[in-house]
Amino acid sequence: MPTLNLYTNVPVDAVTTSDILKDATKAVAKIVGKPESYVMILVNGGVPMAFAGTEAPAAYGELISIGGLGPSVNAKLSSTVADILQTKLSIDSSRFYIKFYDVQRSFFGFNGSTF
């Protein structure tokens, strides 16, 4: 149920995307404390984006989860995802925002119903 949506203006190829998906899945599961089998990661590359008035490499992320989030967890997730983006896409951590959503079970659909 933790879902990480990543958007970046950096074009991504299949190999890079696969690496990001693997690394982010493991990191989100570990930090949020949920099984990897529940984690979904989306990577959207080549998205038109400006940050601080420039089109230099940048990214935006949203992490949605039913529980498991909070100030210390969010800080760790922000740092870890920023590290992944720096390593895989050369996006400086100062050019990355991430928003966290801790949602109620009834606001998250799965398997034709809600959790």
TrEMBL record:
Any one Pfam family match given in the protein's UniProt record, by short name: MIF
Reaction catalysed by this enzyme: L-dopachrome = 5,6-dihydroxyindole-2-carboxylate; 3-phenylpyruvate = enol-phenylpyruvate
Record bears the keyword Transmembrane helix: no
The keyword Secreted is assigned to this record: yes
Source species, domain of life: Eukaryota
Subcellular location as annotated: Secreted
Name the record gives this protein: L-dopachrome isomerase
Organism this protein belongs to: Gossypium mustelinum (Cotton)
